[in-house]
Amino acid sequence: DSAYALRPWILTPYLTPGNENERRYNSAHRRTRTVIERTFGLLKARFRCLHKSGGALQYAPETACKIVAACAIIHNIAIRRGLHLTPEDTDTEDEEQELPHRQPGDRSIANEGRQRRNHIATQY
Description:
Elements: H1 20-46, H2 61-80, H3 87-90, H4 107-123
Helix pairs in contact: 1-4
Organism: Pleurodeles waltl
Domain DDE Tnp4: 1-76
Main location: nucleus
């Protein structure tokens, strides 16, 4: 996503893919992002605390990660027990996504991110 700066922990798509490896990486990145967004949508539908209208999580990042992981586990248990979400449950209005402001950063961090992305693009 071009809203985010390339970092070792945030691997963005290539802005102008120049070869087949980069195009394949971008395609995989797009598919993965779609799955992640759908997953977050399902979790937010089942657990209102994860949705902005439910108040959102007001915790330290480490605690918020544990809460999201617990929600994912409980969601999977619910699915295994046949407690699927109905279309009404998942019909939440798309909220305006607040995009971060791209921050110019340390070139060495961006270079490390570029190296990781290139490694993934060429190895997988």
